[in-house]
Predict the structure.
Amino acid sequence: MHSRTPYIAANWKMHKTVAEAAEFVDALLPRIAATQSDVVICPPFTALAEVVERRRGTAVKVAAQNMHEADSGAFTGEVSGPMLVELDVEAVVLGHSERRQYFSETDEALARKVAAALAHELEPILCVGESEEARDAGETEGVLERQLQADLAAIDDLAVGGVVIAYEPIWAIGTGRTATPEQAQEACAFIRDVLRARGAAAEEVRILYGGSVKPANAAELLALPDVDGALVGGASLDPEEFAAIVDAT
């Protein structure tokens, strides 16, 4: 049995005002006070400061949902690593499938972002995953290997241990479909094999499953040997549901 600490992240996407975020954190904290897992909340940029303040004195971490690779510059609408660090944010989600699909985020850009996050001591939560078409064509492993090799190209093998990998099959995000336990384990084990093959400390890397994780399926998914946690979307918007997923670890 591995000794990796479970990692449960709430990706709110474009949900929750500052007031709603404060209400959520106040409701969540008593429910998860006894957990030994790493719990991370990923609010929209406008609510980052409020969530950071509300969770002070607890073990809960805060992650941004994106960042630019440059420290500063003429990049209207973007937010940099130093800006996040100033807020006491500890982590950042990079390469979510929605960023790749709707905002044309490339693996080349992600390689720069992962390196920049690590340089600022922000923990990258790097998302990888295949489309329904790729899954049906038997290309899941090819897609995952291509994304991992490209997105981690700018960092050395020792630094890979500081990256959290989130496997999110695109066909299971927001669709209500969930990968079977066998599919989730197979993909997460393959990701670990890719990291191991490049000489990284693969046993240290925490690999999350993301894709319609709910209280009803969390325990089964989180019990898999190569699934070390979850990147939770819709179910993370309700403090009771999210706490139930944390409790499943």
Notes: Residues 7-247 form a domain with the TIM Barrel fold (CATH 3.20.20.70). The longest strand covers residues 123-128. The chain has a mean pLDDT of 95.
